[in-house]
Amino acid sequence: MDNSNEALRTNSRLTQFIIWFLFIAAGFSVGVRLGTRRAMNHGLGVDDKLIIGSLVIYLGQCIAISVAVSADVPISNNSNEGSNSFMKGQYASVPLLILVLTLVKWSNSAFIRQLSPKQSYRKSVLVLSTIVGIWLVSATVAGLFQCSLPTPWDITDSSRCINRLSWWTFTVVINVITDIGLVVLYFSIIAKLQLSRTRKASIIMAFSTRLIVVGIALGQLATFLSSKEPMEAVASSLRLPLVLNQAVLSSSVITACVPYMKPFMQSLQTGIHRINNTSAFEDELMHLPRQPLSSHSNDTPLEYQGRLSRTRQIFKG
């Protein structure tokens, strides 16, 4: 029995270490992001404030999940007190987890709005942000009322709970789809930047790191679905689904900060400046009064279009 308890305490300490290590890594990445903003003489934007908010909520989530882990609950022969402590901590952490992911997605969406002034991208961002908001409300409400009152955290009796596998599958799948949507928007904007192929490739790689979150989330879902008993999904020897949840949070925050590193920010600013200038120039051309060709003009329509095209190229250069 003593050996079993000692192994349990060792697993608990290891899990605690992983939880807080992942949080510190995320906090460091946010610090680097804000430091880069300051070094480049930029004030805090909406996207930065959202990422700071996500880190604060993430801290609360880590505290809640640490309380759950410290309960030291084995898979079999659970004490009622230990089981309740574990389930309460895990129950409290889930809404915070979803809120962190939502704030990070909204931060990414705000950044996309800064990258391109085009109305089509702004509409796409609005649609994606709305979907994320609906996901936040629906997944959180389902999580808060997953089991009957007065003990909605007690998942030991599945007859009084919703289908938790379906609920968590919905939560993860929408999380993955919206992340992929963000990456697609990033790529479509970057493809139009006036940059060399090398710089463009490096920026694409920076934004591609978001796909790491997708991979971890799918791995977490696969682990959760493979669990046969309710308590097994939240109280395994190393609590693998729980640890993977923390990995999703940490990687989500970190990958949202990678594009803000100074080399990527400088390249983005250069490309965006060129695109904005070109767009403004073309808008001016569109609003110029159209002069009909007269007998005094030496330009044919083809020659006029050729001169206009060369002027645009010079402006882009």
Structure summarized in a few sentences:
This protein has ten helices and no strands.
Description:
The protein is mainly alpha-helical. Helices cover 75% and strands 0% of the residues. It contains ten helices and no strands. It is globular, with a radius of gyration of 26 Å. The C terminus is likely disordered. Keywords: Membrane, Transmembrane, Transmembrane helix.
Low-confidence stretches: 230-234, 273-297, 313-317
Overall mean pLDDT stands at 77
Span of the ends, CA to CA: 75 Å
Number of strands: 0
Q: How large is the share of residues in beta strands?
A: under 5%
**What gyration radius follows from the Cα positions, in whole Å?**
26 Å
Structural class category: mainly alpha
SSE sequence, one letter per element: HHHHHHHHHH
Helix content: over 70%
Supply the number of helical segments.
Answer: 10
What form results from the Cα inertia axes?
globular
Largest sheet: none
Keywords: Membrane, Transmembrane, Transmembrane helix
Protein name: Rhodopsin domain-containing protein
Pfam family, one: Fung_rhodopsin
Transmembrane segments: 17-36, 48-71, 91-112, 124-145, 165-189, 201-222, 242-261
